[in-house]
Amino acid sequence: MLTAKSFGKINITLEVIGRFPDGYHEIVSVMQAIELCDILSFKHNSSQNINFQCNMPIIQNDQNLVFKAARLLKGYSEHPYGADIHLEKIIPVSSGLGGGSSNAAMTLLTLNQLWNLNLNQDTLAMLAKKIGSDVAFFLNGPSCIAEQKGDKITQIKSVQPTNIVLVVPKIDLKEKTKNMYNRISLKDHTDGTLSFKTAKLIEAGKLPTRYPMYNVFKKVAIAEFPEISFAEKAMIESGASQVQLSGSGPSLFTFTKSTNESKRISEKLAALGYNPIISKTLHKIDGYLAKNTSV
Questions:
Q1: Is 175 exposed, middle or buried (0-12, 13-18, 19+ CB in 10 A)?
Q2: Which CATH number covers residue 69?
Q3: Scanning 9, 115, 287, 293, which has the fewest C-beta atoms within 10 Å of its C-beta?
């Protein structure tokens, strides 16, 4: 059996700079992997079936990106046997933290190893594009610029290890990402300058607390969902110096200067009725996303 950590991400910046003829938006985003992770385990089976189980029954179905990634890889490689896959879900679902995309990427990487397929990175990236925009990031990580539909990935020097506090407000919106993009208008478009400026600060080794952060969805999210506005206010009142939205939301995050500061902010948020998550940015470790442990 192979086990793998499936890390989440935050968007330090997320800009929409245009729209493609097929309706997809063109983005520029600085993306950063974080320690918050799901756990995936994989075992050979002698049948041709992909058997998928999850500790969260509501997402244990053939629409889950783990199942889709496994079926896609099996079909492409024509591998004769199947696999038993178990997902322990820890990253909140539909939170803007990339959990599903990360799960799909780790499924491609780990089954490539388990089945001894020896597919190269370019082939895995091609398959990743068929699953979803953010999947390509998780084949690379931990710090990248994502462009075009989010599937053109350029690795940059890693963000210095930094503590973060996350809050995930509860909102109810079906097909969240699609609907949030539909709320973006031309006046919300920018030119990508801020994202590339932030990337240069990362490359120069500046601390994340000094980054100019931006998310095209933040204004829309706050206007549409009061819960997000209330959570942002609570984070600031609890000591957060700068609060940003991740992905299309609803997750909010703030960088902190120390573990103690993270704990102080989290304790104050908990007293206000929130369930904060303390995590940390991941630093560059070659192949860390593909590292699996035999158990």
A1: exposed
A2: 3.30.230.10
A3: 287
38, 89, 134, 176: the catalytic one is: 134
Residue whose structure tokens are 């020896």: 118
Confidence of residue 295 (pLDDT cuts 50, 70, 90): very low
CA dihedral 175, 153, 36, 67 (to 10 degrees): 50
Tell me whether residue 206 is one of the annotated catalytic residues: no
In angstroms, the CA 165 to CA 174 distance is 26
Cα separation, 229 vs 232, in Å, equals: 5
CA neighbor of 293 nearest in space, from 37, 42, 34: 42
Q: What is the pLDDT of residue 285?
A: 54
- pLDDT beyond 80 at 294: no
Distance (Å, rounded) from C-alpha 4 to C-alpha 293? 7
Active site residue 9: yes
Nearest-angstrom CA–CA distance, 119 and 105: 13
Model confidence pLDDT, tens digit, residues 267-278: 999 999 999 999
Q: Which residues of 242-280 are buried (b: 16+ CB within 10 A; e: fewer)?
A: ebbbbbbbbbbbbbbeeeebbeebbebbeeeebebbbbe
Q: Which pLDDT tens digit goes with each residue over 46-96?
A: 898 999 999 999 999 999 999 999 999 999 999 999 999 999 999 999 999
What is the domain count for the chain?
1
Question: By three-state DSSP, how is residue 117 classified?
Answer: coil
Element housing 30 (H / E): strand 25-45
How many residues can be counted in the chain? 295
Domain that holds residue 204: 1-295
Six-digit token pair at 126?
């091609």
Query: In sequence order, which residues have a C-beta less than 8 Å from that of residue 178 and are 6 or more positions away?
Result: none
